[in-house]
UniProtKB/TrEMBL annotation:
Binding site for substrate: D10, S11, Y42, G43, N74, T75, T188, H189
Single Gene Ontology MF annotation: glutamate racemase activity
GO biological process: cell wall organization; peptidoglycan biosynthetic process; regulation of cell shape
Top-level taxon in the UniProt lineage: Bacteria
Keyword tags: Cell shape, Cell wall biogenesis/degradation, Isomerase, Peptidoglycan synthesis
Catalytic reactions on record: L-glutamate = D-glutamate
Active-site residues per Swiss-Prot or TrEMBL entry: C73, C187
Name of protein: Glutamate racemase
Naturally occurring in which organism (per UniProt): Candidatus Terrybacteria bacterium RIFCSPHIGHO2_01_FULL_43_35
EC identifiers of the protein: 5.1.1.3
PANTHER family recorded: GLUTAMATE RACEMASE
Pathway(s) it belongs to: Cell wall biogenesis; peptidoglycan biosynthesis
């Protein structure tokens, strides 16, 4: 896969948690990022609406040169997994490319992490209502808590404001009462406040960051692709050589200045998002 270009999309800055992990693990890979800030948040919309957004986003990323879709949004991932044929439609946009979501890798990690088979999920209302985690975790007690206020607070840069801590405490209380030993951050925005969740839940509770798990899966897949007919991509050095000068482009559907400022702070390097 000589010209792999990842197409990453989310409702806003949340997908940057995936992008940052990808940069760490696959420094030579190029990607195009789209934050659909004009239609944020996705988590309070119907699954059918979110699927339509995901298809539109995929077409945009394909037009910008992306070759492999990364659904870096739990709400969109849940809606697509729940909707028959949705994943196939996105795959066909990218010429039958492998499609990655952020839910299945996190579920796998949670299964490995839990000792008492009680798994908590903090997610948006649409993700919780999809019951996708319950479907993917049969035989486990899944405690899903909708947390609609967190995404707007994180988008506003209020991660560590007292108001955010107070609201988050209300959301994690049901998880603590249920005795879960593992919590899935069921929205890619939530790793921005992972430390707060960890502090409130305690050291004995395992926190699953979907961005880390998803990036691991993407790295493994990319490294396993055939670089040429007689060879297989097996080393990071090859990836670096493959894309010696990786291109990373960022697009948003609204408020590019605000997005660029927050994105640069989080990613650790300058970012200039373009308005579509």
């Amino acid at each position: 896969m000589k010209n792999v270009v990842l197409g990453i999309f989310d409702s806003g800055i949340g997908g940057l948690t995936v992008a940052r992990e990808i940069e760490r693990r696959i420094p030579g890979v190029s990607y195009v990022y789209f934050g659909d800030t004009a239609r944020l948040p996705y988590g309070t919309k119907t699954a059918s609406t979110v699927v339509n957004y995901a298809i539109q986003n995929s077409k945009f990323l394909k037009a910008k040169g992306a070759t492999m879709p990364i659904i870096a949004c739990n709400t969109a991932s849940a809606a697509i997994l729940k909707t028959k044929g949705a994943n196939k439609k996105i795959s066909l946009i990218f010429k039958n490319s492998k499609t990655f979501n952020v839910i299945e890798p996190a579920v796998e990690a949670a299964k490995e992490a839990t000792k008492n088979k009680k798994i908590g999920v903090l997610a948006t209302p649409t993700t919780v209502n999809s019951r996708i985690y319950e479907r993917l975790l049969p035989g486990y007690k899944v405690v899903s808590v909708p947390a609609p206020l967190l995404v707007p607070l994180i988008e506003a840069g209020w991660e560590y404001r007292p108001e955010t801590k107070s609201i988050l405490r209300e959301y994690v209380n049901p998880l603590k009462k249920a005795g879960v030993d593992t919590v899935i951050l069921g929205c890619t925005h939530y790793p921005f406040i992972a430390k707060l969740v960890r502090d409130m839940m305690g050291d004995k509770v395992k926190i699953i960051n979907p961005a880390v798990q998803t990036a691991e899966k993407i790295e493994l897949f990319v490294r396993q692709q055939k670089a040429k007919p007689q060879g297989v991509l097996t080393t990071r050095n090859y990836l670096n050589k493959l894309n010696k000068y990786p291109h990373r482009r960022f697009y948003v559907s609204d408020l590019p200045k605000g997005f660029s400022k927050q994105a640069a702070r989080f990613m650790g390097h300058p970012i200039k998002a373009r308005l579509i």
